[in-house]
C-alpha cells in the first residue's frame, strides 16, 4: 500500500532540517526496501539503546500543530477525522505555503497509475469475495464499508463549506464537491484513501496531540515478531497545552508548595490573573532547571521529554534493515489497516463462530439445547472458572499459557467499534473467542464448546444438573478441557473441511499476493489442526 518514492527523499530531508529533526544519518540510511517502498537500514553496527531519531513534538504533524488547528478546536473536531482534515488542507490547499508540505507530499494515496490505495472494504466485490469467511470478514467485519467513515466525510464536507462561507477558505475540491448537497463517489473515495494512508503511518503521540504523523519514524517497516526499535513519547501531558510539567491548566493536587501559593492567590482575587502568569513562568523556570540538573549532560537544543524518539531495543548489524512493530497484528488487521500481509504470521487465527452458528442452525434438533445452554450460561461459567484457575497458577505459567478471557480482551481491543459493542458481554459475547490460533490449536473456550456438544448423555445431564451450584459445576468443568474424543474430532472435521475447501478453491482464483498470503495462512492453520486431529 502507501509507500514512499525515493524521489521524495530530498524533500523529506529538507523538512527535517527546517523542523530540527535529529536522525542518526551517520549510521543509518534510508533506501529502497525489498519488501516495498523505502525502509531504514544500518550502515554500520549500532548498539542497543541508541536513539536513531528524535523529533520535537512541535514538528510532529498533528491536528493541533496544523494550519487549521484553531478551526478544528473551535468546531470540536478531534481524533482521526481532525488529522485527516488537517492533512487534506495542508496537501491540497496550502501546499507549498505549508510548513509541512515537503514532508506530507511524500505520503501517497494513489499509485503511479493514479489508482487509489483503498482498504478491502472498498474493493470491488470480485476482489474482496475470496476473503469472505476469513477473520478479516467474520471477526473484524472489515469487508463492509464502515458507516462511520461516511458520517465523518459528511461532517468534513459540511465544515469545508462552512469555512468557505465564513472566511472564504478554499474548499479542497479534490475531496469535497462544490455543491455541498451533491455526493460525489470519486471524491469520497479520495477521502477514504487519505484516511487509509494516514492510518497506515500514524503514531499515538500524547494526550494533547493525540494521533500524529512523524517524519522518518514512518519509514520503518513492520516486523511481525522481532522488531529492532520502539517508539517513545511521554503520553501524559496537559490535554490543553501539551506541557509535561505543571502548567496553567493542570496543577497537581499533591504539590504543597503550589497549593500554598495558589491558596494565597485565591485570597487576593483582584490580582489572580497577573500572579498566575508569574507563577506559571516560575514553574517553567524550575522545571527547565530540574531537567538540566537531572541529566548532568551537555544539552543539545532538543529537550528529550519534548520529543518523540525511535530507539534501538537491540543491537543491529551493518547492512540490515531496521524494523519497527506496528503491534501484534494478524494478517486480517495488517491488510485492513496497512494494506499488506506477512507469510507465516504468528498472530493469524481462523475464526469459527460463523461456522458453528451455521452448524447449530442445520442441526437444531440434536444440538439446540446444548448451544442454548452455552450461549445463556455455559460460556460465562467456563471462562469465569478458567480465568480463576489461571490466576491461581504461577506467574511464569501465566505468561506462557493461553488465557481465554485475556485472549478475548486482546482481540476485542483490535475489533472495530461495532463488533466490540456486539461482544461486550451480551449473549453473543462467546462468538469472538471461537478460533484456532496460528499453530492450529483451539482457544480454551472453543475446545470447551466442542467438548460440551459431544458429551455423552450421562455427562450432559450431570453438567446441566450441577450448573446452578458453583461448587458442583466447578468440579465438573475440567471435563470441558479434555482432549478431543472421536465424537469431538468428527465435529471439528465437519466444521473445518468445508472452510478448507473454500480457501483452496479461492486460492485458484486470486492473484493479489496479499490476499493469497492471508488465505494460505488461514488454510495452513486449518491443515495443522486437521493433522493434529488425525
Ligand atoms: C509506515 S509505512 C513504512 C514505510 C514504507 N515502506 C514507505 O515506503 O513509506 C507502512 C507501509 O509500508 C509497507 N510495509 C511495512 N512493513 C511491511 C512488511 N513487513 N511487508 C510488506 N510491506 C510493508 C506497507 O505498504 C505499509 O502500508
TrEMBL record:
Record-linked InterPro entries: SET_dom (IPR001214), SET_dom_sf (IPR046341), SETD3_SETD6_MTase (IPR050600)
Signal peptide limits: none
Regions annotated as coiled coil: none
Any single Gene Ontology cellular-component annotation: nucleus
UniProt domain SET: residue ranges: 26-327
SUPFAM superfamilies: SET domain
Biased composition (Low complexity): 404-415
GO MF entry, a single one: protein-lysine N-methyltransferase activity
Annotated TM spans: none
Region Disordered, annotated ranges: 393-427
Name this polypeptide is given: LAFE_0B11694g1_1
Amino acid at each position: 500500500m502507501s509507500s514512499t518514492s525515493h524521489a521524495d527523499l530530498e524533500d523529506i530531508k529538507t523538512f527535517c532540517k527546517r523542523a530540527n529533526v535529529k536522525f542518526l544519518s551517520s549510521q543509518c540510511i534510508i533506501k529502497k526496501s525489498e519488501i516495498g517502498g523505502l525502509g531504514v537500514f544500518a550502515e554500520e553496527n549500532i548498539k542497543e539503546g541508541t536513539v536513531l531519531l528524535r523529533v520535537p513534538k512541535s514538528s510532529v504533524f498533528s491536528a493541533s500543530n496544523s494550519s487549521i488547528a484553531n478551526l478544528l478546536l473551535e468546531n470540536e473536531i478531534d481524533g482521526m477525522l481532525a488529522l485527516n482534515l488537517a492533512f487534506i488542507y495542508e496537501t491540497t490547499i496550502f501546499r507549498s505555503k505549508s510548513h509541512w508540505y515537503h514532508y506530507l507530499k511524500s505520503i501517497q494515496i494513489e499509485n503511479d497509475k493514479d489508482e487509489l490505495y483503498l482498504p478491502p472494504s472498498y474493493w470491488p466485490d470480485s476482489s474482496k469475495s475470496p476473503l469472505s469467511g476469513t477473520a478479516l470478514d467474520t471477526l473484524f467485519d472489515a469487508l463492509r464499508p464502515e458507516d462511520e467513515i461516511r458520517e465523518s466525510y459528511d461532517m468534513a464536507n459540511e465544515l469545508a463549506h462552512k469555512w468557505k462561507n465564513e472566511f472564504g477558505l478554499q474548499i479542497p475540491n479534490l475531496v469535497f464537491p462544490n455543491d455541498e448537497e451533491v455526493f460525489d463517489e470519486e471524491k469520497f473515495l479520495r477521502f477514504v484513501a487519505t484516511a487509509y494512508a494516514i492510518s497506515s503511518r500514524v503514531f499515538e503521540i500524547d494526550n494533547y496531540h493525540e494521533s500524529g504523523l512523524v517524519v522518518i519514524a514512518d519509514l520503518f517497516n513492520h516486523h511481525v515478531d522481532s522488531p529492532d526499535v520502539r517508539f517513545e513519547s511521554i503520553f501524559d501531558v496537559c490535554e490543553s497545552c501539551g506541557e509535561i510539567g505543571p502548567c496553567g491548566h493542570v496543577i497537581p493536587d499533591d504539590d504543597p508548595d503550589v497549593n500554598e501559593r495558589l491558596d494565597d492567590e485565591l485570597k487576593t482575587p483582584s490580582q489572580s490573573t497577573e500572579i498566575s502568569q508569574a507563577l506559571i513562568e516560575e514553574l517553567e523556570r524550575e522545571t527547565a532547571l530540574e531537567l538540566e540538573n537531572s541529566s548532568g549532560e551537555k544539552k543539545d537544543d532538543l529537550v528529550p521529554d519534548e520529543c518523540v524518539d525511535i530507539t534501538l531495543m537491540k543491537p543491529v548489524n551493518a547492512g540490515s534493515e531496521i524494523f519497527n512493530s506496528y503491534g501484534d497484528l494478524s494478517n486480517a488487521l495488517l491488510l485492513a489497516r496497512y494494506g499488506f500481509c506477512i507469510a507465516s504470521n504468528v498472530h493469524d487465527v481462523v475464526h469459527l463462530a460463523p461456522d458453528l452458528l451455521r452448524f447449530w442452525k442445520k442441526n437444531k434438533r440434536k444440538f439446540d439445547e446444548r448451544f442454548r445452554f452455552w450461549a445463556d450460561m455455559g460460556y460465562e461459567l467456563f471462562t469465569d472458572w478458567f480465568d480463576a484457575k489461571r490466576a491461581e497458577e504461577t506467574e511464569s505459567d501465566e505468561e506462557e499459557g493461553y488465557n481465554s478471557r485475556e485472549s478475548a480482551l486482546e482481540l476485542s481491543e483490535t475489533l472495530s467499534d461495532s463488533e466490540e459493542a456486539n461482544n461486550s458481554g451480551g449473549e453473543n459475547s462467546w462468538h469472538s473467542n471461537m478460533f484456532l490460533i496460528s499453530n492450529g490449536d483451539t482457544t480454551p473456550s472453543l475446545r470447551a464448546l466442542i467438548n460440551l456438544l459431544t458429551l455423552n448423555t450421562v455427562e450432559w445431564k450431570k453438567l446441566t444438573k450441577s450448573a446452578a451450584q458453583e461448587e458442583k459445576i466447578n468440579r465438573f468443568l475440567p471435563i470441558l478441557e479434555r482432549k478431543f474424543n472421536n465424537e469431538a474430532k468428527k465435529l471439528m472435521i465437519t466444521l473445518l473441511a468445508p472452510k478448507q475447501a473454500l480457501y483452496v478453491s479461492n486460492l485458484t482464483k486470486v492473484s493479489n499476493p496479499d490476499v493469497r498470503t492471508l488465505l494460505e495462512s488461514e488454510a495452513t492453520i486449518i491443515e495443522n489442526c486437521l493433522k493434529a486431529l488425525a
